[in-house]
Every structure is written in structure tokens, then in C-alpha cells.
From TrEMBL:
It comes from Flavobacterium dankookense. GO terms for biological process: amino acid biosynthetic process; aromatic amino acid family biosynthetic process; chorismate biosynthetic process; quinate catabolic process. This is 3-dehydroquinate dehydratase. Pathway: Metabolic intermediate biosynthesis; chorismate biosynthesis; chorismate from D-erythrose 4-phosphate and phosphoenolpyruvate: step 3/7. CDD domains: DHQase_II. The gene is aroQ. Gene3D superfamilies: Dehydroquinase, class II (3.40.50.9100). Keywords: Amino-acid biosynthesis, Aromatic amino acid biosynthesis, Lyase.
Length: 137
């Protein structure tokens, strides 16, 4: 099974950025833990702060991978382009958010991506990624 985690803007700052919301662990450290725990899964990772690069990656893997775990971060609430990319591919996508977006600012309560995904996991911290991964298994 081939799964990719795609992270959007500012998630490269995990471990430094707002630890009271996002925790103190870097995503790279967490990703290595996931790889160790799920050795039978071919697990890839991509992060970009640039919307077009995220769209390009979704299109690149969207017909050949078994699953995409997508945390589009702030683009979740603004990007019709990413939503359209998710809608256009055949690979199933799980939308993930580390924080409970409904407990935050009102603009974070809407996702352009959600109508086009297999499921949504919100608010379980970094564990959200593992829950998404388990849903593909």
C-alpha cells in the first residue's frame, strides 16, 4: 500500500509554531515514528507553503497512490484550486487537521476541500495522521 501525507503552509514550523495548539514535536520526527510503526506501508511525505505546488503534487500522485492524507492548513478555508484538484483525482483523500478547527476562529469552520474527500479527521493532534492512515488499512 502506497500512502502520501501532504501538508500545507506553515506546517514546516511544527514543533516551533504555537506549541499550545500544535505541540512541540516536529513533523519530521512524527513522520519517522509513523514509518517505524507502519513498516508494511510505503509512506511518503510532501510539504509546501505554495498553493500551486500542493496542487501539482495532488495531481502527480492522484492516480497512482492508494491514499492521500491531506492537511491543507489555511488553504483548506480559501483554496478552490486545491478542492478542484482533490475532486479531479481518483485516489481517495482523507482531510486532516491537527487542531479542532471548529474551536478556533469562525473562518476556519468552513472547508472547500471537505465535500471532495473520503473522510475528515479533526482535532486529535498529530494522532490525526495515524487515524487517517489506519482508515486506509
Amino acid at each position: 500500500m502506497k500512502i502520501i501525507i501532504i501538508n500545507g503552509p506553515n506546517l514546516n514550523l511544527l514543533g516551533k509554531r504555537e506549541p499550545e495548539i500544535y505541540g512541540s514535536q516536529t513533523f519530521e520526527d512524527y513522520f519517522n515514528e509513523l514509518r517505524s510503526k507502519f513498516k508494511h506501508v510505503e509512506l511518503d511525505y510532501f510539504q509546501s507553503n505554495i498553493e500551486g505546488e500542493l496542487i501539482d503534487k495532488i495531481q502527480e500522485v492522484g492516480f497512482s497512490y492508494d491514499g492521500i492524507i491531506l492537511n491543507a492548513a489555511a488553504y483548506t478555508h480559501t483554496s478552490v484550486g486545491i478542492a478542484d484538484a482533490v475532486k479531479a483525482i481518483s485516489t481517495p483523500v482523507i482531510e486532516v487537521h491537527i487542531s479542532n478547527t471548529f474551536a478556533r476562529e469562525e473562518f476556519r469552520h468552513h472547508s472547500f476541500i471537505s465535500p471532495n474527500v473520503k473522510g475528515i479527521i479533526i482535532g486529535f493532534g498529530m494522532k490525526s495522521y495515524e487515524l487517517a492512515l489506519q482508515s486506509f488499512l
